[in-house]
Amino acid sequence: MEKQVENATSTQLLRSDEQSSESDKPRNGGVHRRKTSPQAKTQIRAGWAFLAPFVVLFVLVFLVPIFVSIYSSFFQLKTTGGGAYGGGESTNTFVGLENYQYVITSHEFWLGIGRVILYTCFQVPVMIIAALVLALVLDSFLVKHVTIYRLGYFLPFAIPGVVAAMIWLYLYNPEVSPLVKGLAALGIDINFLSGNVVLASMANMTTWTYTGYNMLIFLAALQAIPPELSEAARIDGASGLQIMTRIKMPLLRPAALLAVLLSIVGTIQLFNEPAVISSTQTWMGKAYTPMMMAYNTTMGTLTPSGDGPGSAVAIVMALIAGVLAVGYFFVDRKVSGND
Length: 339
Known about the structure:
It is a single chain. By secondary structure, the protein is mainly α. It has helices at 2-24, 38-72, 98-104, 107-139, 146-158, 161-172, 178-185, 198-223, 227-235, 240-251, 253-268, 272-278, 290-299, 307-336, and strands at residues 75-80, 89-94. It has a two-stranded antiparallel sheet with strand order 1-2. A hairpin with an 8-residue loop joins β1 and β2. The chain is globular.
């Protein structure tokens, strides 16, 4: 009798469990969702409210100009009407891919791309290595008052690019430069603005400006490394050089990847230095770099002129910069064995 009662009780418990589990399942095959509390909803709204100013500015300052440039690249200013004596009215005419055809077949554009790629190949490694060395020195125990040195290295980046280019143009000008005159007194005659040296002169200007910026990237990555790793290695008998080469530098790979990618994109957009130098060195022309070509095309000093051809130059240049950056990213992953 007792066994029958126990069996009946267990059967009732199983049925109640099944009914409760069936009631918990969402109807119509839907997904069961937990109700969000009023406090959580308030926090979500507050988060979106804080995020809204950035989203609005990002759309207005970044996305809208990109779409406007893409749209403009399919149009070109053309004169309609008039007669044998000129005149007529300039209208923005849809030309399809004609602007892109002009860019891709332009000999001056590809010469400019070749210059900035050559510039990137020898300027970026020098700058990245210098920034890495400075960051390692500041992170070591060799330097006191790190804040003063860090501010001093970063100070060139705080100077506006055009102002820095004008200062270096003065130092490169053979007629007034104390640097050129000092080298001449030592028997070294060099023209920093000559055709075969001016690219290296611009690389020196960019390295002086951006080394401190990249140094901060490496220094931030170094300070994020747990000090316990260095202490454990030191207890095991590792020297300072071994700690630097076997612990710190391998952990700096993500920071190095970021610095190199930013540098590649930046050097493809090289503008301030050649634009300032070309104001005195007319032999450089209006299209010495792709960015100069885009600017001067938009301003009407190159033909075809206008927003359409200028936007096409800028878009093709951006695509090339993106391809180079993505290519370096995959090469870095292949070398590091992360693929």
